[in-house]
């Protein structure tokens, strides 16, 4: 279970007249469903909400805890429980060669080098990426990188996966592959997406609007509310 207890983020305002700007208004949430989609306009606060789950962003008010571990005081334990998939895969791929990056994620769990290598290839194979094992991460297409980044996160084996727009760079077939892969995972998955069909398939949908949770309920209803707010002009570009 992930708990937000009146957790919010305010930052110093750009405008010297105002004292602070609310990025995410304090919210109280218990996130326990297997698949939770976070939707909303650009700049609404989705990534901020997701980053709070693994302690990448600490709340300026209230607290967030994961399985009872506070993201501020128990950051290491939180990260052992939460894997984070970034929108930009180059933010997280640290080794130059694909298989090395996946192997790095396995370092804590598999000490033997040969076994680690075998497991890395198995994980890559599970997403049809074994042929990329020896490629440089810099030579991959954006979509290939995004899938390799998913392999690396999955290899680390945390029991919660937080994914920030995991399908943005993917073509139709790979989008479906990623959704099927996520569907089959045992882990709890919380994901932000602008793909409203993908969002609607979740068990629960959170709609974020101007740094507030504007809707929290069944995912198809969250998508419907989002469409309604855009149609009515309450959310505009
Ligand atoms: N640490 C910070 N300091 C100042 N402003 C911030 C900070 N973090 C986020 N913001 C601002 O808060 C708003 C919400 O950002 P966030 O990245 O959470 O949006 P988002 O919903 O993920 O948008 P997108 O769909 O474009 O990814 C943006 O206007 C962003 O510039
Ligand atoms: Mg974002």
What's the helix count? 8
Bound molecules: adenosine-5'-triphosphate, magnesium ion
* Helix content, binned percent: 25-40%
- Give Rg in angstroms: 18 Å
CATH fold title of the domain at 35-43 and 81-231:
Rossmann fold
Mean pLDDT, to the nearest integer, reads 93
Please state the second-level CATH architecture of the domain at 35-43 and 81-231: 3-Layer(aba) Sandwich
Strand residue percentage: 25-35%
What is the terminal separation in angstroms? 34 Å
- At the fourth level of CATH, the homologous superfamily of the domain at 35-43 and 81-231 is P-loop containing nucleotide triphosphate hydrolases
Number of strands: 10
Biggest beta sheet summary: 6 strands, mixed
Q: What is the ordering of alpha helices and beta strands?
A: EEEHEEHEHHHEHEHEEH
Which geometry do the CA atoms define? globular
For the largest sheet, list the strands in their spatial order. Answer: 6-7-8-3-9-10
Low-confidence stretches: none
The first-level CATH class name of the domain at 35-43 and 81-231: Alpha Beta
- Secondary structure class reads alpha/beta
């Amino acid at each position: 279970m992930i708990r937000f207890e009146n957790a919010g983020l305010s930052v110093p305002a750009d405008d010297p007249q105002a004292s602070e700007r609310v990025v995410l208004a304090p919210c109280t949430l218990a996130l326990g469903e297997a698949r939770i989609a976070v939707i909303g306009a650009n700049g609404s606060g989705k990534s901020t909400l997701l980053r709070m789950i693994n302690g990448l962003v600490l709340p300026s008010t209230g607290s967030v805890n994961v399985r009872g571990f506070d993201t501020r005081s128990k950051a290491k334990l939180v990260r052992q429980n939460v894997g984070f998939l970034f929108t930009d895969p180059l933010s997280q791929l640290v080794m130059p060669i694909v298989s090395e990056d996946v192997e790095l994620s396995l370092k804590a769990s598999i000490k033997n080098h040969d076994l680690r290598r075998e497991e890395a290839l198995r994980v890559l194979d599970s997403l049809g990426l074994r042929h990329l094992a020896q490629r440089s991460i810099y030579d991959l297409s954006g979509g290939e990188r995004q899938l390799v980044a998913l392999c690396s996160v999955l290899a680390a084996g945390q029991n919660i996966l937080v994914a920030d727009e995991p399908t943005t760079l993917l073509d139709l077939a790979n989008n479906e592959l990623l959704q099927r892969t996520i569907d089959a995972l045992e882990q709890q998955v919380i994901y932000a997406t602008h793909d409203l069909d993908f969002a609607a398939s979740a068990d629960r949908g959170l709609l974020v609007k101007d740094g507030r949770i504007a809707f929290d309920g069944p995912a198809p209803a969250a998508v419907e509310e989002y469409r309604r707010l855009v149609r009515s002009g309450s959310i505009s570009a």
